[in-house]
Amino acid sequence: MSSTDLKLEAVVVPVADTDRAKEFYTGLGWRLDADFAFDNGFRVVQFTPPGSPASVQFGTNITTAAPGTAQGLYLVVSDVEAARAELLAHGAKVSEVFHPAAPGAQFEPGDSGARVTGPADERSSYGSFATFSDPDGNTWLLQEVTKRLPGRVEDATYGSVDDLEAALKRAAAAHGEHEARTGKADENWPAWYAAYMVAERTGSELPQ
């Protein structure tokens, strides 16, 4: 295992019109971190999606990639339907929520026949998606993740108030089932909630 942290902090998105792209991402409500222009024509604009530890950059003379060739950029959310509704309210054209009927269908362009409308069965983590594009055709993929695979995350952190609220609601529902199984009220519910939320976030075995 490497002893040096290599933190992915920014991804370049190729665009044809920097100002048009800036207007689009501003409209989504993403945080504008930088807009630096230089005398030699180089310009870099950086935005960060809400709750994201990583950012996106675009501009002029920043990449040789053709505009619109960034495809399937992941935006992980705790509630894909709520995230879709918020993006729609900000003017993005977002697909219906879907789940893939075949592996990889979430990356196929357009309304592929391998996409089934509606969230995944039992709202399984990693299984529900929605897509949208920026004005250049760069595509973004919303993926609903509620429980991480084991070893994927070491710390139970939450990127936003909405993310934390959704986790608390899932813990409350699971705790209700726990009390139904035991047949008695759990006075130590805060500890049970905490154990459940950490286990869910890190992919560990959930408390029963």
Describe the structure using short key phrases.
alpha/beta; four-stranded mixed β-sheet; three-stranded mixed β-sheet
Report Rg. 20 Å
**Run of helices and strands:** EHEEEEHEEEEHH
How many DSSP H or I helices?
4
Strand content: 15-25%
Helix fraction? Answer: 25-40%
User: Could you give the order of strands across the largest sheet?
Assistant: 1-4-3-2
What structural class results from the helix and strand content? alpha/beta
Tell me about the largest β-sheet.
Answer: 4 strands, mixed
Query: Can you count the beta strands?
Result: 9
Itemize the secondary structure elements and their pairings.
Layout: E1 10-12, H1 18-27, E2 31-37, E3 43-48, E4 55-60, E5 73-77, H2 80-89, E6 98-100, E7 115-117, E8 128-133, E9 139-144, H3 161-182, H4 189-202
Parallel strand pairs: 1-4, 5-9
Antiparallel strand pairs: 2-3, 3-4, 6-7, 8-9
